[in-house]
From TrEMBL:
PANTHER family: CARBOXYNORSPERMIDINE SYNTHASE (PTHR43796). InterPro entries: Epimerase_deHydtase, NAD(P)-bd_dom_sf. It comes from the Bacteria. Residues 5-71 form the NAD-dependent epimerase/dehydratase domain. It holds the Pfam family Epimerase. SUPFAM superfamilies: NAD(P)-binding Rossmann-fold domains. This is Saccharopine dehydrogenase. It comes from Flavobacterium cupreum.
Length: 342
């Protein structure tokens, strides 16, 4: 089988790392970069996700798998992939866009002959697999929580910053005993003790697609996600801005500037807590090289799985295409990732 892979958004932060890792691990893959702007190499394809007329080159270059690393709010690439029986994976969608895309795919389920994979959960959609690793029997799980440590020194792409800028003043949904509750970012503070020497920090609400995935797909009754910054001052400031509605009087450009600062690289850490009727389990993951590297590496693992031809056509979330043990071993074996379970 050919293995021609198109990374749309391949000139962005995460897209570049995906391409680097793919090339290093799989030199037999033929890689193409999709962007609105023309490049010098023959592997650079001009693709504008808002203009389906630019999609013809995907068929011309006999692409097997499309990797979405850029925003496609109208899901034109998703529809193109389904129509043309192309494998597809998306890592960029915030929760509202993910739910729309998933519903669209389900509405066209009878037409889906390729592998359509949604991988927009935290750090390339690996949380679901880690939850499954800790407790395979989802009926036993009462609550799953994700606690995120984010360093302002880390490299960050535009998509996450723009999402926060656009949505920080809006409420979003968390699930408590299967009841949706509206909350807002940077409120409902609690104290959490992070691993890897970070220690106790105040954590606040954050909207990530795992809220939808773990409750609506995996049927876990209570799902919460909270985050902290490496700077205690910045964390407190965000809570202050939300409580006193400072975000509401800021322009979108001002909020984009506030959330869009990006450093040269730092560690990223997140912790997954699973509660059953009889015990509490914890998994802690640290990526020394930061969130872009972790997201890209997770995505590469999904791509490699999709191209092994063991996965039948259908609609999946990324955690559904792996055995949890297989994915855990791949993550734990990577030189820049540390995992603690206990």
């Amino acid at each position: 089988m050919r293995k021609n892979i198109l990374v749309i958004g391949g000139t962005g932060l995460v897209g570049k790392v995906i391409l680097r890792l793919l090339q290093g691990r799989n030199p037999d893959y033929t890689l193409f970069i999709g962007s609105r702007h023309p490049g010098k190499a023959s592997s650079n394809l001009v693709i504008d996700v808002t203009n389906p007329k630019t999609f013809d080159c995907i068929i011309h270059h006999r692409i097997d798998l499309i990797v979405m690393c850029t925003k496609d709010s109208n899901d034109k690439i998703l529809q193109f992939a389904i129509k043309n029986k192309l494998d597809y994976i998306d890592i960029t969608k915030p929760t509202p866009d993910l739910t729309l895309a998933y519903n669209l795919a389900q509405e066209n389920k009878q037409k889906v002959e390729s592998r359509i994979v949604f991988s927009s959960g935290w750090m390339g959609g690996i949380v679901g697999s880690l939850v499954d690793l800790m407790e395979p029997d989802k009926d036993q799980i009462q609550e799953a929580s994700v606690y995120i440590y984010y360093s302002v020194k880390d490299q960050a792409g535009k998509s996450s910053a723009n999402f926060l800028a656009e949505n920080v003043c809006k409420s979003f949904i968390v699930y408590v005993n299967n009841k949706p509750e509206k909350v807002r970012h940077f409120l409902n503070s609690e104290r959490f003790n992070f691993s890897f020497g970070i220690g106790k920090r105040q954590v606040y609400n954050l909207d990530v697609p795992d809220l939808f995935i773990l409750n609506q797909i995996e049927k876990i009754p209570t799902v919460l996600v909270k985050m902290t910054y490496n700077s205690k001052f910045v964390t407190s400031l965000m809570g202050y801005f939300q409580r006193f509605k400072v975000f509401n009087i800021m322009s979108l450009r001002e909020r984009q500037f506030l959330f869009g600062s990006s450093g040269k690289g730092d560690q990223t850490v997140f912790e997954v807590i699973v509660k059953t009727k009889i015990k509490i389990k914890k998994l802690s993951l640290q990526s020394v090289n930061g969130q872009a590297e972790l997201t890209a590496f997770s995505t590469v693992l999904h791509i490699e799985k999709m191209l092994k031809e063991v996965l039948s056509g259908g609609i999946y979330f990324s955690h559904q295409i792996h055995s949890s043990q297989e994915l855990y071993e791949a993550l734990a074996g990577h030189h820049s990732i540390n995992i603690k379970v206990g």
